[in-house]
Amino acid sequence: MPRLFVALEVPRNAAMSLSLLRGGLPGARWIDVENFHITLRFIGDIDGRTADEVVDRLDRIERPEFQLALSGIGSFGSKKPHSVFAGVTQAPEMYALQAEIERICQRLGLPADPRKFTPHVTLARLRNARTEDVAHYLTGRGNFYTNTFTVNRFVLMSSKESVGGGPYITEEVFPLYESGGSWDGAELHDHLA
Asked: Taking every annotated instance into account, which residue ranges of this chain make up the domain Phosphoesterase HXTX (predicted)?
């Protein structure tokens, strides 16, 4: 069974902006542009029945689309950096969506994610990168940002076990409803009246 995770896709124009950050860091294995994403919940290797249950529950989520932008860059692993990433702007709707997905996973018996949710797009995985090289790389690119984009769906993705960063396959797509849409039941009420 492939490894599963729930993610937000990075639109093409934002991915192209991210691609301009590639290079200039010894020991970096850069993520392919088509594999950029924001992980909402890592699920891991699960059996087919559990995967079907996850899909069924995720399909019931009804949340509005929202706006995001990528902003700033950083690294994970302060003493021994292991990856560099682009940050994601704070969006309450994204955090609410992630929290609902986390609750669904735990109700299905999957262990809680031990890490605090830190939305980001991994740009590169690092192997034996020197801390000073990472600091120099980050210093020169700290003012990075993209235009705001609309997130109108989230996806269930899979990855084959490989050495970091893909290839990823979109297994299922879950739409978010248009924020301007009427999902408060008013239309149904008018229809029945």
From this structure: 9-84, 91-166
